[in-house]
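hiii so um. not sure if this is the right channel but i have a protein structure encoded as tokens and i wanna go backwards to a sequence. like what aa goes where. can anyone help
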């Protein structure tokens, strides 16, 4: 097969490309230039898509012995990922930009271009597994639970999975670094990137403030009593405990958490941990990795990239996904993705629109 290997400049994508060559495929490496103003050097493990990263990717391609190109996708990334991220926060929601990048960039824009150039598939360094079955391809969790990235790949449909390879899904991360060193790849000890790649300093609130400006409002309790003030709702996420800057302590002396964010009236509502508990949610824009479910599902759900599995009952009604938790879940926020699993198999994902709290029935 002719395979396009997406090479970020990190150890995972470099080893993934090398494994595809070793498997006998005709491989071409490509680095995605996603930043309009790339930094010369990254700051430790923060950020990506720097000039340094592109050079690391090129050096890895030279060692592996494959052609290498850089594709400028900065405008597409800005429109589909960065602008979406800012707009979601402005609306009081909590988006996952990595999930959106996989959906819109790596397995939409890149795959479309690859197929147009007569490639058969795209390979990445994601930690997940693809299993071929008589009914099509299935997306499964990686064997290394600490590195599993199936959550952010839950947006991929059957057509995209048919043209995807994840060569690292069957291997623990510690072995990948050792393999990179054996292959003579200089990125073997390079730190993994983390946090949001386009916010290199990790200051999400500062980034959003530059984009959205200040919009002062009140911090209130569930009864509407004013407890403090803020400079913008975009500085908060549901479930947040630190940085609330409330001068008045709670009556019971226990910590308070963000329960709700309302940009329209600029209110941030806080309350106790018990008030965070959610019994059910409604989600929209489902993306199914296989056929859409037609029956009620008794499965597991994951609500954050590194969150734990939760037992749920899920139904699809008029292109919406209704999810009820077996036990109440904490800090479930509109804008997050709910990804459904049957064992290790990813069924699909949807974007959370609304939640119903357990305290609404008390």
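sure thing!! here u go:
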């Amino acid at each position: 097969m002719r395979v396009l290997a997406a090479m970020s400049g990190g150890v995972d994508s470099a080893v993934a490309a090398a494994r595809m060559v070793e498997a006998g495929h005709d491989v071409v490496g490509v680095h995605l230039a996603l930043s309009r103003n790339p930094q010369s050097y990254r700051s430790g493990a923060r950020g990506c898509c720097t000039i340094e990263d592109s050079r690391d990717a090129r050096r890895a391609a030279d060692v592996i012995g494959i052609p290498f190109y850089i594709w400028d996708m900065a405008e597409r990334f800005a429109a589909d990922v960065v602008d979406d991220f800012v707009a979601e926060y402005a609306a009081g929601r909590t988006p996952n930009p990595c999930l959106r990048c996989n959906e819109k960039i790596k397995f939409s824009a890149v795959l479309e271009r690859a197929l147009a150039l007569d490639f058969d598939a795209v390979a990445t360094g994601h930690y997940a597994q693809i299993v071929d079955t008589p009914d099509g391809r299935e997306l499964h969790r990686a064997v290394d639970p600490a590195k599993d990235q199936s959550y952010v790949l839950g947006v991929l449909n059957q057509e995209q999975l048919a043209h995807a390879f994840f060569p690292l899904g069957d291997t623990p991360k510690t072995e990948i670094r050792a393999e990179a060193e054996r292959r003579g790849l200089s990125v073997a000890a390079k730190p993994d990137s983390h946090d949001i790649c386009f916010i290199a300093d990790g200051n999400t609130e500062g980034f959003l403030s530059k984009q959205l400006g200040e919009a002062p409002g009140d911090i209130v309790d569930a009864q509407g009593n004013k407890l403090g003030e803020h400079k913008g709702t975009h500085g908060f996420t549901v479930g947040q405990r630190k940085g609330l800057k409330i001068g008045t302590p709670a009556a019971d002396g226990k910590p308070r958490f963000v329960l709700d964010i309302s940009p329209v009236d600029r209110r941030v509502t806080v309350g106790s941990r018990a008030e965070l508990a959610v019994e059910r949610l409604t989600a929209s824009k489902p993306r199914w990795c296989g056929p859409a479910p037609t029956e009620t599902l008794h499965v597991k759900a994951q609500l954050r990239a590194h969150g734990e599995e939760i037992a749920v009952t899920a139904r699809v009604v008029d292109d919406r996904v209704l999810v009820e938790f077996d036990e109440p879940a904490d800090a479930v926020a509109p804008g997050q993705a709910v990804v459904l699993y049957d064992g290790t198999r990813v069924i699909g994902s949807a974007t959370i629109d609304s939640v119903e709290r357990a305290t609404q029935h008390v």
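oh and The longest strand covers residues 345-357.
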